[in-house]
Specification:
By secondary structure, the chain is mainly alpha-helical. The protein has one domain.
């Protein structure tokens, strides 16, 4: 594995920089590129790619999560119900992977297909999110607006999201934002994004720790990704608001669709 990383170090650092740059600008969705990069570009096994990406996502989202918390952009009751579904959902998938010890070749095939489907859904979610925002009534961004938690659909969605994230490492960003907007159409947009980002931290950390316990992580690869992504995040965050949102969304969706095609065709 070390030789594989050494031969692809430039791609890993460059890819980490681009992913970090997109995360800094868009806040969500760009993490979906990491696993396809590791599988199709570097040649890492799907299991190691998923586990490494999960801890990478937890690390990159942590600083943004703290910032959203300090700004009051987190709806903790809704986050609690979401985590009540997602954490057990992720734990169930991890337990199945540990106890069943399925054939790695077969699991790799299913992970690639599931990841390709999830990437297509993520690409659609990124484009649909602005449309969903238009359904919100006037005054939705009033800072005194409170949103009552709908525990049943929130937990149900959380279970599905947790299972998808534990299996493919994709879904905690763009899909989460789109789904929360659908369940809570009156919720402030900034609180939707903040709640989704903060929720992604424990979810990706739990799933990543579970994969690490099964040996599905490469620390050297993780460090290389972080070294490339941190400068990208710093630069991208400074450009937030300076580039057209519609252009960023179309570009990111196109990249996700291309990544899905590359995974499905191999």
């Amino acid at each position: 594995m070390d030789a594989l990383i050494a031969n692809s170090l430039g791609l890993i650092l460059g890819g980490g920089f681009v992913i970090g740059f997109l995360i800094g600008i868009t806040g969500v969705g760009a993490g979906s590129l990491t696993t396809p990069l590791l599988i199709s570009g570097v040649g890492v096994s799907p299991a190691v790619a998923v586990g490494t990406d999960l801890l990478f996502a937890a690390a990159t989202k942590m600083s943004a999560a703290w910032r959203h918390h300090r700004l009051g952009n987190v709806d903790w009751p809704i986050l609690g119900w979401l985590a009540a579904g997602s954490l057990p959902g992720a734990s169930a998938v991890l337990l199945w992977l540990y106890l069943a010890n399925p054939d790695t070749v077969l699991v790799a095939w299913y992970v690639k297909r599931a990841l390709a489907v999830t990437l297509v859904v993520s690409a659609a979610a990124i484009l649909i999110f602005p449309v969903l925002k238009r359904w919100q009534p006037q005054g939705f961004d009033d800072p005194v607006t409170e949103t009552a938690a709908r525990w049943a659909p929130t937990m149900f969605f959380g279970v599905i999201l947790g299972a998808a994230v534990a299996l493919t490492s994709v879904g905690a960003g763009a899909i989460g934002v789109a789904a929360l907007t659908s369940i809570y159409p009156h919720m402030m947009a900034r609180r939707v994004v903040g709640t989704d980002i903060v929720h992604a931290v424990p979810l990706t950390f739990l799933a990543g720790a579970g994969h690490a316990g099964m040996g599905h992580i490469d620390v050297t690869l993780l460090v290389a990704l972080l070294c490339g992504s941190i400068p990208g995040i710093l630069i991208g965050s400074r450009l937030t608001g300076k580039l057209p949102d519609w252009a960023l969304r179309i570009g990111l969706s196109s990249v996700l669709l291309y990544a899905a095609y590359m995974l499905a065709s191999r």
